[in-house]
Amino acid sequence: MNDALDSGASPENGSDEPLVLDYTVVKDDFTRAGEASGDVKKKLRMAGINPAAIRKVSICMYEGEINMVIHADGGGIRVEIYGDRVRMILKDKGPGIKDVDKAMQAGWSTASEEARNLGFGAGMGLPNMKKNSDSMDIQTVIGTGTTVTMVVNY
Amino acid sequence: MPENENTYFHSVSIDPKACRGCIHCIKFCPMEAIRVRNRKAVITAERCIDCGECVRVCTSHAARATVDNLQILKDHKYNVALASMPLFAQFKNLNDPNILLTAILELGFDDVYEVAVGAEIVGNETRRYIRQHPENYPYISTSCPAVLRLVRMRFQNLSEHLLPIQTPTEVTATLALKKAMEDTGLPAEDIGIIHISPCPALSAFSKEPLGIRKSKITGNLSVKAIYPLLLQKMPLVKDNPKKLSHASSLGLGWRADGTGGGYITEKYMSANGVHNVLKILESLEDDSIDGLEYLDLYTCTGGCVGGTLNVENPYIARADLRSVRAHLPKRIPKDELPFSGDISWNQRIRFDDVYKLGNTMQESLRRLAAAEKIEKEFPGLDCGSCGAPTCRALAEDIVRGKAYRHDCIYFLRDHIHALTMELNTISDDINRTILEDKGHPTAQQMERLQDYITQLWAELNELDSRFK
Questions:
Q1: Number of folded domains in chain B?
Q2: Cis peptide before B16 (omega within 30 of 0)
Q3: Do A1 and B399 touch (CB under 8 A)?
């Protein structure tokens, strides 16, 4: 019982099995937005990943979380930490994105008046995520939800 | 491990004789730097930023800040006191700062210099720097050494936002030393520059500064140690104080209540209290702070008047300081501002990485995965009985090889339960041998029985030791 390390399931030398972290995002709860990105940031720091990559991940995560709080009925975030990259899968139940190309334009937003009054909805969410990730994929179904997958390499 | 390097001088320490091994400080330490081991709190030096939160919450006064005493005046031929801004906030109805300054001379100092003067110079330089360097908005004030150490330890990404300007205390030390050398003709090594400090962070910083190679401050006294002495001297000098004050209302209020930020730029934010500061820095790192040019951050609640070496409550102190400030000119006239020379940083800041769990990324990642798993074995109560602030922190200590699972009393209790169940099975086994098979228990059976009893005994002893 004294040896902690034997029991840890871990990405061993050579294998590409990631460490998986799961988070739940609650609709309309602005006070909790940022919890997941903060936790991931802390853990990446412990994993000794370079600060510049950590910052990219945390910006992607934070923008994604805010998007889920504002636009969707909440959802879940899965973070997979590999030896050379982080993959973030943000899956929401929500209205879907009608025009992905438009949503990718800086400054374009469908955020409610309420969200805008709080300083959100500047239309920088998706563009910022795109800018800070090394690859980004958006799968969206109108009336069902959206899944955004982003990868940051390090 | 990276943890044994990069240790620097600390002002905050825990006196093991006074510590009763409670878990107050480990819960409040913003850096999770304290553990209780063998019923004594121990600070992990490389994580400590000398913010003094532990000093604030320790009920047995075991967590304390080490500063010098008045004996230090004997070390130099000529001594100048640096009167920090919060010092002026400790007294009721102080309508003339000269009374306080004259009383300081009565303690044996040859001269006294107000840090508020340095603060005004730092303010002017900050204003100029921020206007000329729009590239890295918002700039983080580096006047609070605990904030600077915090950024250095946890926010390497924010390095370009750090304002590369010396602290008001250091700038004042430079001015005071220059004046003392001119006044006396003595060389620098004969002059003591002694700061009357509101907090352990500033004291530690003068011993091991960042941004400059060496501080000109030769010693630190605490506001609270000087306070009772000044209370005796002030009535004696109040009718005929010397004209010593040069400070303005702006300089004196600077770090006391965060209103100084408005002088730098209208687009500023002032935040104090270490947990608020942490949140702001996290937000800045997440890119969610927009449109600001300057962040005036202090780890103590209320700003420097909240420092743990002060006497008065920070809010009362602020109110008292306002009444002193009312008697001062708004600003020091331009032609009366002393010339300080270049007050920017001249040393690069090296960033620390005290959080990674292993030596290589591979090891760190493996340990992180292990910590994720181990954390789930604990009850999640964050009770602190193991000596770590949270169950999560215990899991991290375990993967670093610094703690064991059975440090958790709940884990230990469950283990003891499991052992007794197994003991029961073995004794049933032996019973069956004797009663049903009419035989004798084997040596092996007896050995196993003895083994389990020994283990159980050891674990019960360990559990007991937590409550002795």
A1: 4
A2: no
A3: no
Alpha-carbon gap, residue B27 to B36, rounded angstroms: 11
In a domain, B179, yes or no: yes
So what's the architecture of A18-153 in CATH?
2-Layer Sandwich (3.30)
Kindly state whether A3 is in contact with chain B, defined as any CB-CB distance less than 8 angstroms: no
Give the domain extent around B216: 70-336
* Residue A123: predicted pLDDT: 67
Nearest CA among B144, B297, B285 for reference residue A42? B285
| CA distance to partner chain A, nearest, from residue B181 (Å) | 46
Give the three-class secondary structure for B344.
strand
Residue B342 belongs to some domain of the structure: no
Do B286 and B415 share a domain, yes or no? no
B44-63: pLDDT as tens digits: 998 999 999 999 999 999 99
B346 domain-assigned: no
Q: State whether residue A55 sits within 8 Å of chain B by CB.
A: yes
> Predicted ipTM?
0.83
In-domain check, residue B4:
no
> Does residue B283 share a domain with residue B400?
no
Cβ-defined contact of A8 to B367 (cutoff 8 Å): yes
- Is A32 an interface residue toward B (CB < 8 Å)? no
Across the range B269-295, mean pLDDT stands at 92
Q: Check whether residue B181 and residue B275 sit in a common domain.
A: yes
Tokens, residue B462: 């360990």
Indicate yes or no: CB of A55 within 8 angstroms of CB of B282: no
Query: Residue A5: pLDDT above 80?
Result: no
Asked whether A39 and B440 are in contact (CB, 8 A), the reply is no
Q: Indicate yes or no: CB of A11 within 8 angstroms of CB of B365.
A: yes
Angle between helices B314-325 and B249-257 (to 10 degrees): 170
**A12 CB within 8 Å of a chain B CB:** yes
